[in-house]
Amino acid sequence: MPAKLRAMCGRFIITTPPQAMRDLFAFREQPNFPPRYNVAPTQPVPIVRMNAGFREFALVRWGLIPSWSKEMPQTLLINARAETIAEKPSFRGAFRHHRCLMPADGFYEWRATPKGPKQPFLIRRRDGGPMAFTAIWDNWMTKDGSEIDTAAIVTTEANATLAPIHHRMPVILDEKDFALWLDPSTPEKELLALLRPAPDDLLIAEPVSTAVNRVANDDASLIAAIDEQTAAALTTPEPPRRKPKPADDRQTDLF
Fold it and tell me: Which of 56, 100, 109, 157 is flagged as catalytic?
């Protein structure tokens, strides 16, 4: 049975070239990967974590499986709430021992509309630069003995930019705080202080095509902004057309 998805931040983009990402996050590996415009849960995602005192780049499955879990959870844990991350059994072990950064260049969120499907928005830094989500990871062993590294993004309440679209957002870490989050000796109080909404002026949110709703779509056209009028037309279905009555029935119709 497939796992149920509990989504807050459920799609994001990675467009920073590998070398620029390496320079920003200071890991030793030299990965080579293409830009991604529609990263979805259960797919491989890049993280930066500590290993033997050095920052390490790794690809892990998006959707945390706690190390103690006897089987794959029925709910796909793609996000961990900042307010309860130190208490919830599914997250507290990884929060204490397996913190990481998840590189991204933007993320999608959906706003409810009066009629029709929700309108997707792409949220990016106002300056166009890359960002780092705070995240946690864990290692899980399957019944056949194989190991899987998995991760979840830490979320918090939305800032003023995101609040009109959604009530939650990923915790976006400032570069000066990377080391503090990754350091295994950082006290819990200092870690929790980092888990706050981004400054209101850091991000911009632009409506994009509902093509992003389909996971199979993954190209640069997805991040092209559309105007609000076009967005409204795309998310509001046309009223159903009234079927014409057969000629023989028209005389019996009083209206």
Answer: 109
